[in-house]
Amino acid sequence: MNHKLIKNTIYGVAIGDALGMPHQFLPPQEFDKQPVTEMTGYGAFSYPAGTWSDDTSLTLALLDSLSQGVNYTQIMQAFANWYQLGKYTPTGIAFDIGAGTAEAIKTFLAGTLALAAGSSKVTNNGNGALMRLAPVVLYLANRDDTLSLAEQFEILHNTTRLTHGHVRALVASGLLGMAMLTVQRHPEWPLRRALTTGFQIARDYYQNQPAFQSELIDFKPLFHLEQLINTNRNDIPSSGYVVDTLIAVSWCLLTEPNPNACLLKAVNLGEDTDTIAAITGGVLGLNPATHFSHSWLSQLKDRAQIDYYIHQATESANFN
Ligand SMILES: [Mg+2]
To answer: How many cofactors are bound and how (predicted)?
Structure first.
């Protein structure tokens, strides 16, 4: 896979994360009064502009681990190194840690197998696995012709299950994963066509499997994108619930063609600003025609670290 595509995708995640990070948890009305137009610092956490959070850290942890191949114990160990040692952070300390992710890492460290560490309770349906899906998609994109559809879903599900074991979180990753793979495979297609096709591939796959099929109803807006495009901003949910996040990301991608404006649109939805913008940035970055703002890119903290893991992936047979 070309270096530029890995770079663009990971940069998209980091820029979205850093743009949204200071503004998270604020209600949408706050953004009506004062919309975010630039990268700023402080706010939700005491960090300067350009600081990236868990979304990018866990993305780098997966990119690092997948550079050595798919080993779920190793991926979980990388997550634990972030959580305990502050590896993959620009601050030396892990912060903005999701509850489901923290619980799963502690369960793993106490001796539970990696694939059983994520709680399968219905309350554990935050967007913690969606935020780190980009490296998994880059890995799968490189194996397009050697992995069956079932094997691709298995990897999307298993990398999710590490921290989020409920079937709804698995289906969310399957839907976003197929949408992202379609964007990568067909950069010439309008995003609307790529998302429609990707969501349809996942829906067709899940429809034949009773364990997953019953979850599709929650994601209904993704199968009616025409309706979603015409939905008012005030009716778009933007919480950290996996269903809300996926709908919010899709709405931003479908309603704003300029990638930098699209990231701001994601932030200005409010609530889980950094994760919604990070996922949006990852999808946009999969198209080589996407150019993120140089000013935002240059403001990212410790870009050398991000570049190190991108370079390592580029050199690895698993991304080539
Ligand atoms: Mg975050």
So the answer is: Binds 2 magnesium ions per subunit.
